[in-house]
Amino acid sequence: MRYLSSFRTSLKISRYLFRVLGFMLWALGALLTSFYLTSLFNALKSDIRQEYNANYDIAFSHIRHIANILRDIQFMAEKHLSQDNDKNQTIVPHNNDILSYIPLDENSDCELLRRTTHNNLYSLEQLIALWKDNIAAIRSINQTFFIGVKSKCMVNFFPHNNITEPDALKKMIYENTRRLINMREQNNERALFWIQPSPKADSGNLYVFTPIYINGHMTGIIGIEKFIRLESFLQKRERPVTVMMLNESSHPELQFSIKTNNKPLVINPNSNSQPMYFGYDENFTSLVLMRNLSPSSLRIVYSLPLKHIYDELKASAINGIILNIISAIAIIFFIWLFERKMFSPAEENAIRLEEHEQFNHKIVASAPVGISILRISDGVSILSNELAHNYTRMLTYEDQKRIVDIICDKTSSYIDVVTSNNNHLQISFVHSRYRNEEVAICVLIDVSARVKMEKSLQEMASAAEQANQAKSMFLATVSHELRTPLYGIIGNLELMQSHTLPPEPTRLLATMNNSSSLLLKIISDILDFSKIESKQLKIEPKDFSCKEILSHVISNYLPLIAKKGLSLYCYIQPDIPDIMRNDPVRLQQIISNLLNNAIKFTASGYVVIEVSSRHGYLYVSIKDTGLGIEDKLQFQLFEPFFQVSANKENSSQGTGLGLAICEKLINLMDGDIEFVSQKYVGSIFSIRLPLYGTQYHTKQLSNQRAQKRILLNIHNDFLEKYLQNFLTQNHFQVALYDESQLDGTEILISDRANNPNISICYFIEISEKHIGSPKQIRENYWLYNTYELNELDSMLDSMLDSMLDSMLDSMLDKLLVEHADLPAIFVSTTSAPNKTIQTDIFLNTVKVLVVDDHPINQNLLVNQLNSIGFSASMANDGVEAIEYLQNNSPDIILTDVNMPNMDGYELAQYLRGKGYTKPIIGITANALAEEKQRCVNMGMNDCLSKPVSLAILKETLIKYSDI
């Protein structure tokens, strides 16, 4: 417990340290970002300084160039003025206007200057003019001045280039001349530079004056004027740089800005004493470079707003801030995730371990079972609760030793022990380690109550099994007792119907036969449902033809359809397999039930059967135009004994088990069933079965199918599409009817009566009222039913062959051959036709021994056999049958399975034991699934269920006879 508490404290400290580490990582990233931005700022600042210096070099070279020009002019002036006026000089008249003498004030003596230096000045002027014309470097000089020191008179060598106002120029020159003279007196003489701004702030005139010495005396002052623009002092214009020209008093003379909205520059006064200053202005709004323009006293200032610098660094700064925000989020998320995945689970586990430790102690103390920890090495109990101690005291020493040996040997995981007081203990154990030792954790449980309960459950299961066997016996008994007298009724009625009788007895016999068949169906439905509920009904898969099943079912219901005046359509798609594997008997039962319901609940209209295959399943849907089913009743439709009473006539027919049996049979056949119904519209019931073991037979096709056209004039859209697809799939040349394209050799198929004016070879009318085989009602005019549409290709082959042979009689013979297997059904509104079984003379040679204890069934079987043509003998039980066999040798033994003295099972077993090899066929009223298998196991060849019809009896006996 102490360890767990210290561990929790360590986890908390680790969590806080981890948070501090995350903050330090973020701070380090922020610091690196700051360093990076600072380095970018310094690099940009250095780049700006280099740009400033490049611009300064331009201005400095410009000022230096002007100073050099002035120095050259000064040299020429001193040279010319130092020469004697009388030597080698051409005397120029004083009254010429080549030189302009301008007095600077009222005390100026221009005559003195003209008299003493006129020729020299003229010569100098000519030299300067020649120099200006030939040397491009001084062409930018606007004016050149000479001022006599004593005369205070000025000579302008280029008066026509005067830009400045004369009075302002005279005043400015006079003031600067006096200033230059004063500087001479103070021994501080130098060239004097000043600027006269123009109306535009970015340009002006630069004046440079310097003294002229002759023989050591300042005799005059020479000066020049040049126009300058600050814009020319900028090398690049990518940044909004501001240029200012300052005088020697640091007052701005000229100013130029690339952007006009730059704020005024405030110069740091401490920078005036420095020859070069690079830094910020007083307001820290601009980055400034200020340098002297030697040899002048002027200073030039370059400035760039810090806002522009910040704008250049904005993207990097934003990226840095975003990067820091992202890193902060990432670090916070990582810390949160790490705490959630590591620290929080660890803390929870520590808390859980502490709680589990406490909880386990309480569980062990309060457990309703005995818990004991045994040391493997010696079997000593290290820890146990009170119940384990009490259970251990109930065991004998031998049991305790045996348990310890089993646990130590690890031969089993649990042990059942009976204590001295007859209590049942179950000891289960697992091996583990505890206090660095191999131990076994043993759980001792008193299972006495469970043992008693298991014994009770076994008794209940045995009772349930006996009840189930009793139920099966009851079903077998009920089936036997009901089917035995019913067999006597149905069999004798069938025998009576085989004879020719007057109409009234025939009608009564038909009514009795229908009632008996209905009673048999009800009994069969109840028995089938009971077998399904008791899981005794088994599916018997075998290969069969689905088309034959449908044909058989439809033929059984044709009289009922004709009686009610309904139309029956059957659409079997061409891709249906010829053979499939499933239970054909149950499939016929399902389709018969659904078709019977459709006919029963349809007063008028039609019933449609559609068969198709999709995705490996067989789909059979039966659609009717009956009254439909109400929505509230649809949920109960598949419940046992539920009936939808459409009218009083139908309410008494059936047991309400048909659909329930269909659903269960479909499920046993791995299929399903569904329905859609609407009140007063009709219903559609659809079943789906998997296509197991499908086989497709290759059908020999006639060569004439593609030679003649088959025209369709069908008003039923669905029927038209079906016939077009069906005939196309069977390689017929199919086209829709067009009267304008007839040539008289076509076969026309229509669902309406033929127009006599149409010239065609053959006309087939698809009539929903026609029942039976194809019927010719006049020359080249045939009626065809709507429930055998899948056999239409055979009839067309016959017609095509007949057209080829030009023999109508041959076609009729072939049609009779093709449809010989179809039943010829005559529709009557009074009663159904009699079914007769003709006696076969060649069966008289087959001798059948009938063994039955029931006199009615015995006589019925003999009469049935005689009516078929077999020779029959009788025996009352198995003993009499054995005595009969001692003196006679029948070909087939037909025996009941339930008889006194010796039943059919004992008879078959006895005869097979004696080496009897002739066929033995059992007859039973028990319809359970295992009854037939039991008969086969006892040595019988087959087993028939009562009641047995003449057709089934004849088919079975012929199967096992030698004829």
Structural class: alpha/beta
Determine Rg (CA atoms, Å): 65 Å
Q: Cα distance, first to last residue?
A: 98 Å
Strand order of the biggest β-sheet:
1-3-2-6-5-4
Estimate the global geometry from the Cα principal axes.
Answer: elongated
Helix content: 40-55%
Number of helices: 22
Total beta-strand segments: 34
| Unreliably modeled segments | 85-96, 646-652, 810-838
How big a fraction of the residues is strand? 15-25%
Tell me the major beta sheet. Answer: 6 strands, antiparallel
Q: What does the average pLDDT come to?
A: 79
Short description:
Helix content is 45%, strand content 21%. The protein has 22 helices and 34 strands. Helix 1 (2-82) crosses helix 2 (110-134), helix 8 (448-497) packs across helix 18 and helix 16 (792-805) packs antiparallel against helix 17 (808-818).
What's the arrangement of secondary structure elements?
Blueprint: H1 2-82, E1 100-103, H2 110-134, E2 141-148, E3 153-156, H3 166-185, E4 192-197, E5 203-214, E6 217-229, E7 242-246, E8 252-257, E9 276-280, E10 286-292, E11 299-305, H4 306-312, H5 314-366, E12 370-375, E13 381-384, H6 386-394, H7 397-409, E14 414-418, E15 424-433, E16 438-446, H8 448-497, H9 503-533, E17 542-544, H10 546-564, E18 567-572, E19 580-582, H11 584-600, E20 606-614, E21 617-624, H12 631-634, H13 648-651, H14 658-668, E22 672-678, E23 682-690, E24 709-713, H15 717-729, E25 733-736, E26 747-750, E27 762-766, E28 775-778, E29 781-784, H16 792-805, H17 808-818, E30 847-851, H18 855-868, E31 871-875, H19 878-887, E32 892-896, H20 904-913, E33 920-924, H21 929-937, E34 942-945, H22 950-960
Parallel strand pairs: 18-20, 24-25, 24-26, 26-27, 27-29, 30-31, 30-32, 32-33, 33-34
Antiparallel strand pairs: 1-3, 2-3, 2-6, 4-5, 5-6, 7-8, 7-11, 9-10, 10-11, 12-13, 12-16, 14-15, 15-16, 17-19, 20-21, 21-23, 22-23, 28-29
